[in-house]
Protein backbone atom coordinates (compact mmCIF):
# COMPACT_ATOMS: atom_id res chain seq x y z
CA UNK A 1 0.00 0.00 0.00
CA UNK A 2 2.87 2.37 0.66
CA UNK A 3 4.01 2.59 -2.93
CA UNK A 4 0.42 3.08 -4.13
CA UNK A 5 0.04 6.04 -1.76
CA UNK A 6 3.11 7.65 -3.29
CA UNK A 7 1.68 7.36 -6.79
CA UNK A 8 -0.14 10.66 -6.37
CA UNK A 9 3.32 12.21 -6.78
CA UNK A 10 4.21 10.14 -9.86
CA UNK A 11 0.84 10.23 -11.63
CA UNK A 12 -0.42 13.74 -10.73
CA UNK A 13 2.70 15.80 -9.90
CA UNK A 14 1.09 17.90 -7.14
CA UNK A 15 2.41 21.40 -6.64
CA UNK A 16 2.37 23.54 -3.51
CA UNK A 17 -0.96 25.31 -3.11
CA UNK A 18 -2.98 22.95 -5.31
CA UNK A 19 -6.35 21.59 -4.20
CA UNK A 20 -6.49 17.81 -3.77
CA UNK A 21 -9.49 15.58 -3.10
CA UNK A 22 -9.03 11.95 -2.01
CA UNK A 23 -11.99 9.56 -1.95
CA UNK A 24 -11.97 6.60 0.46
CA UNK A 25 -9.38 8.58 2.40
CA UNK A 26 -9.49 6.40 5.50
CA UNK A 27 -8.45 3.27 3.60
CA UNK A 28 -4.95 1.85 3.33
CA UNK A 29 -4.25 3.73 0.10
CA UNK A 30 -6.21 6.92 0.73
CA UNK A 31 -4.63 7.65 4.09
CA UNK A 32 -1.18 7.67 2.50
CA UNK A 33 -2.24 9.65 -0.56
CA UNK A 34 -3.57 12.41 1.69
CA UNK A 35 -0.32 12.61 3.60
CA UNK A 36 1.84 12.69 0.47
CA UNK A 37 -0.30 15.51 -0.94
CA UNK A 38 0.05 17.44 2.34
CA UNK A 39 3.82 16.92 2.26
CA UNK A 40 3.79 18.45 -1.23
CA UNK A 41 2.15 21.57 0.24
CA UNK A 42 -1.37 20.96 -1.07
CA UNK A 43 -4.75 21.73 0.49
CA UNK A 44 -6.25 18.26 1.01
CA UNK A 45 -9.77 17.07 1.73
CA UNK A 46 -10.62 13.40 2.01
CA UNK A 47 -13.94 11.61 2.18
CA UNK A 48 -14.88 8.40 3.90
CA UNK A 49 -18.11 7.02 5.15
CA UNK A 50 -20.93 4.59 4.98
CA UNK A 51 -24.54 4.55 3.83
CA UNK A 52 -25.53 6.22 7.14
CA UNK A 53 -23.19 9.13 6.43
CA UNK A 54 -23.94 9.44 2.72
CA UNK A 55 -24.04 12.99 1.36
CA UNK A 56 -27.28 13.50 -0.62
CA UNK A 57 -25.75 16.09 -2.96
CA UNK A 58 -22.10 15.32 -3.73
CA UNK A 59 -21.77 18.26 -6.12
CA UNK A 60 -22.90 20.74 -3.44
CA UNK A 61 -20.62 19.17 -0.83
CA UNK A 62 -17.60 19.44 -3.13
CA UNK A 63 -18.46 23.08 -3.90
CA UNK A 64 -18.50 23.78 -0.13
CA UNK A 65 -15.05 22.26 0.40
CA UNK A 66 -13.57 23.40 -2.93
CA UNK A 67 -15.26 26.68 -3.95
CA UNK A 68 -12.31 27.36 -6.28
CA UNK A 69 -12.40 23.83 -7.78
CA UNK A 70 -10.24 20.71 -7.56
CA UNK A 71 -6.79 20.43 -9.17
CA UNK A 72 -6.15 16.76 -8.36
CA UNK A 73 -8.53 13.94 -7.59
CA UNK A 74 -7.30 10.57 -6.35
CA UNK A 75 -10.10 8.19 -7.35
CA UNK A 76 -10.87 5.19 -5.19
CA UNK A 77 -14.69 5.12 -5.42
CA UNK A 78 -16.03 5.70 -8.96
CA UNK A 79 -19.67 6.05 -10.00
CA UNK A 80 -21.58 9.03 -8.59
CA UNK A 81 -18.47 10.31 -6.84
CA UNK A 82 -16.51 10.58 -10.08
CA UNK A 83 -19.50 12.23 -11.75
CA UNK A 84 -19.66 14.94 -9.07
CA UNK A 85 -15.90 15.46 -9.06
CA UNK A 86 -15.78 16.00 -12.83
CA UNK A 87 -18.17 18.95 -12.42
CA UNK A 88 -15.82 20.49 -9.84
CA UNK A 89 -12.45 19.98 -11.51
CA UNK A 90 -10.35 22.98 -12.49
CA UNK A 91 -8.84 23.60 -15.91
CA UNK A 92 -6.02 21.11 -16.60
CA UNK A 93 -6.88 19.04 -13.54
CA UNK A 94 -5.48 15.56 -13.03
CA UNK A 95 -7.29 12.42 -11.92
CA UNK A 96 -5.45 9.28 -10.81
CA UNK A 97 -7.71 6.21 -10.83
CA UNK A 98 -6.59 3.69 -8.23
CA UNK A 99 -9.89 1.89 -7.70
CA UNK A 100 -13.66 2.13 -8.20
CA UNK A 101 -14.91 0.34 -5.09
CA UNK A 102 -18.50 1.57 -5.40
CA UNK A 103 -18.88 -0.52 -8.55
CA UNK A 104 -17.45 -3.85 -7.39
CA UNK A 105 -20.59 -5.58 -6.18
CA UNK A 106 -23.20 -3.96 -8.41
CA UNK A 107 -25.16 -6.15 -10.81
CA UNK A 108 -25.34 -3.19 -13.18
CA UNK A 109 -22.43 -0.74 -12.76
CA UNK A 110 -23.32 2.96 -12.75
CA UNK A 111 -22.30 4.98 -15.75
CA UNK A 112 -20.41 8.26 -15.59
CA UNK A 113 -22.44 11.06 -17.16
CA UNK A 114 -20.11 14.06 -17.05
CA UNK A 115 -17.25 12.84 -19.24
CA UNK A 116 -17.55 15.92 -21.47
CA UNK A 117 -15.83 17.79 -18.62
CA UNK A 118 -12.61 15.95 -19.54
CA UNK A 119 -12.59 17.73 -22.88
CA UNK A 120 -13.70 21.25 -21.97
CA UNK A 121 -11.48 21.45 -18.90
CA UNK A 122 -8.60 19.50 -20.51
CA UNK A 123 -8.57 17.08 -17.57
CA UNK A 124 -6.06 14.23 -17.63
CA UNK A 125 -7.46 10.95 -16.27
CA UNK A 126 -5.03 8.07 -15.75
CA UNK A 127 -5.57 4.58 -14.41
CA UNK A 128 -2.60 2.66 -13.06
CA UNK A 129 -1.43 -0.49 -11.32
CA UNK A 130 1.07 -0.28 -8.48
CA UNK A 131 3.15 -3.03 -10.08
CA UNK A 132 4.04 -0.66 -12.90
CA UNK A 133 6.08 1.36 -10.40
CA UNK A 134 7.77 -1.29 -8.25
CA UNK A 135 11.10 -0.41 -9.82
CA UNK A 136 10.86 2.89 -7.89
CA UNK A 137 10.32 1.25 -4.49
CA UNK A 138 13.78 2.09 -3.11
CA UNK A 139 13.33 5.76 -4.06
CA UNK A 140 9.98 5.66 -2.32
CA UNK A 141 11.58 4.34 0.87
CA UNK A 142 14.14 7.16 0.73
CA UNK A 143 11.21 9.59 0.87
CA UNK A 144 8.87 7.91 3.32
CA UNK A 145 11.22 6.59 6.02
CA UNK A 146 12.63 10.03 6.94
CA UNK A 147 9.11 11.51 6.81
CA UNK A 148 7.88 8.93 9.34
CA UNK A 149 10.95 9.36 11.56
CA UNK A 150 10.53 13.15 11.54
CA UNK A 151 6.83 12.86 12.39
CA UNK A 152 5.72 14.37 9.07
CA UNK A 153 3.80 11.22 8.23
CA UNK A 154 1.86 9.25 10.78
CA UNK A 155 0.14 5.90 10.72
CA UNK A 156 -1.87 4.22 13.41
CA UNK A 157 -2.42 0.49 13.65
CA UNK A 158 -5.43 -0.93 15.42
CA UNK A 159 -4.69 -4.63 15.75
CA UNK A 160 -7.02 -7.12 17.40
CA UNK A 161 -5.52 -10.40 18.56
CA UNK A 162 -7.61 -13.55 18.35
CA UNK A 163 -10.06 -14.78 15.75
CA UNK A 164 -12.98 -14.25 18.12
CA UNK A 165 -12.38 -10.48 17.94
CA UNK A 166 -12.28 -10.23 14.16
CA UNK A 167 -15.88 -9.10 13.73
CA UNK A 168 -15.52 -6.32 16.35
CA UNK A 169 -11.99 -5.16 15.69
CA UNK A 170 -10.95 -5.16 12.06
CA UNK A 171 -7.44 -4.09 11.20
CA UNK A 172 -7.68 -0.46 10.12
CA UNK A 173 -5.35 2.31 9.13
CA UNK A 174 -6.05 5.88 10.04
CA UNK A 175 -4.15 8.95 9.05
CA UNK A 176 -3.48 12.43 10.10
CA UNK A 177 -0.88 14.89 9.06
CA UNK A 178 1.13 16.64 11.71
CA UNK A 179 0.18 20.31 11.74
CA UNK A 180 3.04 22.63 11.10
UniProtKB/TrEMBL annotation:
Pfam family, one: ADH_zinc_N
Biological processes annotated in GO: response to oxidative stress
Transmembrane segments annotated in the record for this chain: none
InterPro entries, per the entry: ADH-like_C, MDR_fam, NAD(P)-bd_dom_sf
SUPFAM superfamilies referenced in this protein's UniProt entry, alphabetically: NAD(P)-binding Rossmann-fold domains (SSF51735)
Entry protein name: Alcohol dehydrogenase-like C-terminal domain-containing protein
GO molecular function: 2-alkenal reductase [NAD(P)H] activity
All residue ranges annotated as the Alcohol dehydrogenase-like C-terminal domain in the record: 28-141
Taxonomy, superkingdom: Eukaryota
